């Protein structure tokens, strides 16, 4: 018997001519679909219309066998109907009954027993901190409502401003790599990292002031730091940051977290002396330092916390709104405008008045899918740099976000990072639209080094 050849077998068992004596094996498709082979052979091939169609002539294959099932159940128009755009959008945002039960508010049945009221501390936050404490940096370091649960990665990727969030993360990665990594290499703190797999060395200690929910934790892990101290004013965010650290599955750094106000309290109020004995190599404040400029006292307390435990040669990195850009927009608002506001579909900034104090220059900030009109304060750069110098900090770097992009987009390391972090695709197309790009460029990135004594 000749060797099995599926192609030859298919050709030999395909119809060569329209004849009632045509042989078909029992598994032939036409035999399975039709009860009467003779009737099948006598029918003409099915055509969608009467228009002539080009045909491909192959010598050894005859025209196709007509398809005419006897016991058809569904109508031809009832299958393979494409979804409309409205249906696609509806199913994309569809939330099933299970999701509704998990995310919906639970209502308790009325009870005759008196409700226990938790006693709240008498201490109140000064100024606008009570509003700010209800917000915290989300995993992509844009402010978000603290009452919202920490959603998973898939839900975060569905954010309408995911391109903006990814770009902000990329800028922070540039800061950490360019200024943090060299500081870690010069650190005197080193040791073996604990965890599964082959042990590896960790070096350096970082203070993340305003760490939020721990969105930069992966960056510190990739930098192979030895120890992290995280502080934030929102206790809920600290709990989530601690949970995120516990969920890391690679050899991880040591970490300690505390819920405290770093603008009114010294670090020693939140951390034991043993945790502060070894100085920091890097202090990071991302998208939160401007809250300290509500008053001169808060700004000074913040800088004391930055510099007191930062070693000589250590670096202070961060991101803040660009005061020059904000005030330029304020100047361009017509005098007869109903409100001192500017922005676009992604963000909006509304000033309180035309006064320009060095501290406490308030405005309200709105960011789509992140912030609902949070009070913030202008950080006048000259004032900030002068105060930093008084605390022993020398400026290393100050760039607007678009300048950071222009400076590093062609660097092989940061160029590939743009793609991996989905800021751009493989062809270089941006994930941000023009409104998101405008929102990103209201910020600047900076780096200072603590003066050698």
TrEMBL record:
Residues 1-21 are annotated as: Disordered. Pfam families: mRNA_G-N7_MeTrfase (PF03291). It catalyses: a 5'-end (5'-triphosphoguanosine)-ribonucleoside in mRNA + S-adenosyl-L-methionine = a 5'-end (N(7)-methyl 5'-triphosphoguanosine)-ribonucleoside in mRNA + S-adenosyl-L-homocysteine. This is mRNA cap guanine-N(7) methyltransferase. It comes from the Eukaryota. Keywords: Methyltransferase, mRNA capping, mRNA processing, RNA-binding, S-adenosyl-L-methionine, Transferase. Its EC number is 2.1.1.56. It is an enzyme of class 2 (transferase). Gene3D superfamilies: Vaccinia Virus protein VP39. One of its GO terms (molecular function) is mRNA 5'-cap (guanine-N7-)-methyltransferase activity. GO terms for cellular component: nucleus. It comes from Pholiota conissans. Responsible for methylating the 5'-cap structure of mRNAs.
